[in-house]
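Page 37, continued from 36.
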């Protein structure tokens, strides 16, 4: 699938990313909202580098995506990553915000939704993150359903994540993914992960045993052309690395009460909760968060490398 890139004053693809795409090397998109709004400063700067290294260890090239002074960047240099991690003016941009930020010359970090959309524009097929946005508890009253779900449903990018947090309505999120025709694959698991927990208590419809199998799903779906939905690849923390369940349940209950008390809503919900978890878990939530993001980046690196390899050999087969 070739990318139809917008003009370069709007979207700049980093040289390393462009070279990798041209050479048929795997590329993994990375979101910047987890850096700017999901992980505490100053740890986020070092973690950003570790995430990129994990993609490389998986055999692919990382492309962290953000909007800086009105320009979309697909692939950031170290100074730009540092700015995303440090600048308090960095907004949180979902897809609807990207064009506005571009027009007004603003800067912002991209969510799962906007990162997927921009990755697709650049011809990137695989994306790694921590947790997906989803259906919030009480959504039947508040209508708070993350734009992540709708965008994944219409954007052919595979997203590696550790499920969704149990602050969300996990069952409702899975039902919505089914309604939107987004395939959900468990990586070596039958259970949909619960971010800090290895098992959310809900099952996944499909299970794959390897990066190679996940890549085969991407390439086969492309060749079949049934639809242009993305794929969710759910990668759980190993059971012995998950957050203690009692601590987890306490944090979720207290976090939800805090939102209520502070009247937090809309796009501030997730960042506020993450901040609360990091402040109140004695480092446990951060430890687990970092481990799962690194594991997802590594796996995404392996899947993207395999997708690239299969796509290249498909090209050769067609030319022969
Ligand atoms: N889940 C996490 N950490 C995060 C996010 C989600 O565990 O940082 C971020 C992602 O960028 C995701 C966004 O796309 O929050 C979803 O926000 P909302 O619910 O406002 O759509
Ligand atoms: Mn929301």
């Amino acid at each position: 699938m070739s990318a139809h890139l917008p003009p370069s004053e709007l979207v700049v693809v980093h040289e390393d990313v462009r070279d990798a795409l041209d050479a048929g090397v795997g590329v993994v998109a990375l979101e910047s909202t987890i850096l700017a709004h999901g992980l505490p400063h100053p740890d986020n700067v070092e973690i950003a580098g570790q995430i990129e290294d994990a993609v490389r260890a998986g055999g692919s090239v990382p492309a962290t995506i953000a909007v800086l002074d009105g320009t979309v960047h697909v692939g950031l240099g170290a100074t730009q990553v540092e700015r995303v991690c440090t600048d308090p003016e960095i907004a949180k941009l979902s897809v609807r915000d990207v064009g506005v930020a571009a027009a007004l010359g603003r800067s912002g970090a991209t969510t799962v939704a906007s990162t997927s959309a921009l990755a697709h524009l650049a011809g990137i097929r695989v994306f790694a993150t921590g947790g997906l946005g989803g259906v919030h508890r009480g959504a039947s009253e508040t209508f708070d359903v993350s734009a992540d779900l709708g965008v994944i449903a219409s954007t052919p990018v595979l997203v590696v994540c550790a499920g969704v947090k149990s602050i969300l309505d996990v069952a409702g999120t899975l039902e919505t993914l089914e309604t939107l025709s987004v395939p959900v694959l468990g990586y070596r698991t039958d259970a949909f992960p619960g971010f800090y927990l290895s098992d959310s208590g809900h099952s996944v419809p499909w299970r794959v045993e390897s990066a190679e199998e996940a890549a085969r799903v991407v390439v086969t779906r492309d060749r079949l052309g049934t639809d242009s939905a993305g794929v969710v690849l759910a990668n759980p923390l190993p059971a012995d690395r998950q957050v203690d369940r009692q601590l987890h349940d306490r944090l979720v209950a207290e976090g939800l009460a805090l939102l209520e008390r502070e009247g937090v809503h809309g796009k501030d919900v997730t960042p506020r909760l993450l901040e609360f978890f990091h402040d109140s878990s004695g480092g446990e939530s951060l430890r687990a968060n970092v481990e799962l993001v690194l594991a997802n980046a590594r796996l995404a690196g392996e899947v993207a490398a395999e997708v690239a390899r299969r796509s290249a050999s498909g090209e050769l087969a067609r030319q022969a």
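Residues 31, 33-34, 38, 111-113, 130-131, 133, 146-148, 165, 195, 267, 270, 274 surround pseudouridine-5'-monophosphate (ligand 1) (CB under 6 Å). Flag for discussion at group meeting. The chain has a mean pLDDT of 95.
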